[in-house]
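Much of the work behind modern protein science is quiet bookkeeping, done one molecule at a time. The protein below has been through that process, and both of its lines are reproduced in full.
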Amino acid sequence: MCRWAAYRGDPLYLEELVSSPAHSLIEQSHCATRAKTTTNGDGFGIAWYGERPEPGRYRDTLPAWSDCNLKSLARQIRSPLFLAHVRAATGGGTRRDNCHPFTFSNWSFMHNGQISGFERLRRPMEGILDDELFNARGGTTDSELMFLLALQFGLQQTPVAAMAEMIRVVEGLAEKLLGSVLLRYTAAFSDGKALYAIRYATDRKAPTLYASPLGKGYCLVSEPLNDDVDAWAEIPDGSAITLSDNGLDIVPFRPMQAVVKTAPVAITA
C-alpha cells in the first residue's frame, strides 16, 4: 500500500510534510508503520498549486529517499495546497506514468488502495470514458482510471458525488463480471481551491487516514507525521472530507446511497 500527505491553508513549504518531520513522507517511504508494506519504493510524486490554475508536478520512479531533487524542491517550493505521494505498486509497472499524483486540467489526484480483479474490469471501465479522457490516460494503474472515471461522472461540478458514482459503477461491474466486490479506496484530490479526501472500503478495511491542524491550515495523511498522538484524529471508514475556506467538513460516504450532509466534525490540536 502507498503513503501520502496533503495540505491546504496558508502557504507552507512542502518540506513541512515531505522531509522535515520525524516521520515525514520520505521517512514513511522506507519505514511505514501503519501499512501492510513498510517500504514504498516504487516511485513518488508531488503536485502543488501556485499562481496558475493548473498544478505543478514532479514525479519519478526512484525511491523517494534516494532522490536529492525531491528534498531540494520540497525545501524551496511554498504552496497553499499540495499533494505528495510515495508508491508501493499493487498493479502497473514501475514507470513515471504510473506514479501519483495524476493531473487533468486544474485537478490533481492521488490514491492508496486497490480494486480486486482489476485486470478483468479495466477494459469495460475504459469503455465508459469519452475520447478526451481516454486519450488522457498515460499509465496502466487502477488509480488513474478511477480518477478519469470520476471526471467522466462530473468531478468538476460535484466532486464527492462524482467519486461516489464512480465507485458505484465500479462495484456494479465487479459484481456482474466477477461475482464479488472488493475495493479499498483512500484518496485525496483537488481543483486548486478545495482539498477533498475519501476513505472507503467494501470490506470496511480501508487504508488509514488522519487529519491534524498545521499552522494556519490542515494536513491529511496516511499516517501521523510525529509521535504526538493527541494531535492526530483518525478519519472513520466511510467518510468524505472537504477542506475549503469554510474549514474542515466530514460527511458520511456511501456510494450506493446519497451523501447526506451532517454537522462538521471538529478537529483540534
Q: What stands out?
A: Residues 3-252 form a domain with the Glutamine Phosphoribosylpyrophosphate, subunit 1, domain 1 fold (CATH 3.60.20.10).
